[in-house]
Structure formats: structure tokens, C-alpha cells
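Q: Here's a chain of 293 amino acids. Please give me its 3D structure as C-alpha cells.
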Amino acid sequence: MARLWVIGNVNADEVVHLDAPPWPGAHIAGRPGGERLGGGGANGAVALARAGHAVTLHACVGDDATGAAMVAACGAEGLDVSGLRRLPGRATSRPLILIDPDGERTLIARRTVSTADLDPPPADDGRVAGLLVKAASSALVPLMAGLTARGVPVVAHAPPASMASWPATVWVTSESEPSALDPAAPWASARARAGAALRWVVVTRGAAGATAFGPDGAEVTGPAAPVARVVDTTGAGDVFAAGLLHGLTEAGGDRIAPILDLAAHWAARAVATDGSIPPGDLCGPGVLPAGDP
């Protein structure tokens, strides 16, 4: 078990189950699915806790009743909530999550707080053994640089093109998301911003799996894990990124293929389950177990 940190958003997702996929100008019936814990930080942190790690989540919520409920929900999932900051006079973010009959989600962001409100950001205490960053803030660069300098694995979402420095061990993004990556030269474009600590750039492609790009033209593709039925794709990318960090802390970064396979299995379990928080049997039968990437 490793002592890990996660930096990202904690949201109160408001869910609506649609009777049909949305399209421009559509008039679609939907059924309210209630409010649930979500956000990239919470999703990834719970996945790592499911694998047996001691996880501290650094995020912001409002000082409203919704924020109190989300902090309590994180604690109930076994997370260290000492890094959760409640902001006076602010409302907790409540994105609208639309889920169609095939389990595909459409997210309508209604952001009222974010990781940019982590002021000051957490400082390295010398004991953290891995960091997952599901945010993009220049204030996090010193922490990321310090951790990578002492050999601590950092998995970070690829930043926007406007960020000149983003030191991490692994950049991860979806092929459909805009980022600082040049599709024609993903490794070189990431290396220019991540620096010498960068080992891999991982691009997810949904049902087509994921590809890791490394130095000297290295390219490793891992297939998506099979799913009997897609229930809810919300949070799958967050859980995949958490799987990458778990693999790095257990096996190091030289053998990326088994780490891609583990992350794909984690994501498959996530999409086969209602909700963005991964299931309790994330590392159970049929899924690569904790500590064995």
C-alpha cells in the first residue's frame, strides 16, 4: 500500500437518465437519477483507495449543505479528507450528467469552485509516494516538479496549450480532448513541457483502447477490456488514469503494456457500473488484482 495524493475536482453530480441520445434541437424525456458524488478528483481517489492505497484527496467544495454531504461521502469511501477545503460563501459545483440508453454521458459543467481555488496548493511533505493530477493549474507546477525530481511518479491530465510547463511522469488524455499535445508528435510536444521526468504519453481512444508514446519512437497500444454492457461512462477516464498511477507505484514505468491493461480493466469495471465512482470489486475476480499489474 502506498501513500498517494490526488488533486482534482469534487462535484455533486446531478443525474438525468435520457430516453434517447441527445441531438441538436431535441425534445427528450428523462428521469431524474438524483445527486451523487463525482468529479475527476473523487473518481480517481476512490479507485486508488479500492486498490488498498492510503489516499489523500486535495480539492475544494462550497460551505453549503451539498459540500458537507460530498465531504462526508468521500470520508465514507475511505479517503483522507484533510485536504478538502470548504470555501466560505461558495456553492459546491453541481454538473448536470445526462446518460443515454447506451450508457454514454453528456456533461454540462456548472462549475462554481475548482482546483484553482486551492490557494496555497499542497506542499510535498516528503512522504507522498505518488500523485494523480486531474486539474490544470500553474500553481501545481512546483509540487509536480519537486516530486518528479525525487523519483515520485506523477500521472497528470495533459494541460491546455497555454501552459508552458507541466512536469509529470505520464501525461494522459483522450484523443477527443483539446490539449497541448501535437497529434503528429505527441511525445515531442509533451516532452517540451514536461521535461526530463516524462516517461510516457498515454492517449485513450474509447473502445479502440489506448496508446502510449515514449522516447525514440516507442509506441505501445493496449486494447480496451471487454464490457458485457455499458451502463454509465461517467468517470471512466478518471479511473483509467488512477489505474496508470497504481501500475507505476507497483511496477515502475519501464513496462507500460501491463499497466495499460490494468488501467483498461479498471475503466471497464467503471463503465459497467452505475455512477462515476468505481465499484467495490474494482480489484475483484475478473479484474487484475491490486498489487499485480
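Q: Can you summarize the key feature?
A: Helices lie at 40-50, 65-76, 141-149, 186-194, 236-251, 256-271.
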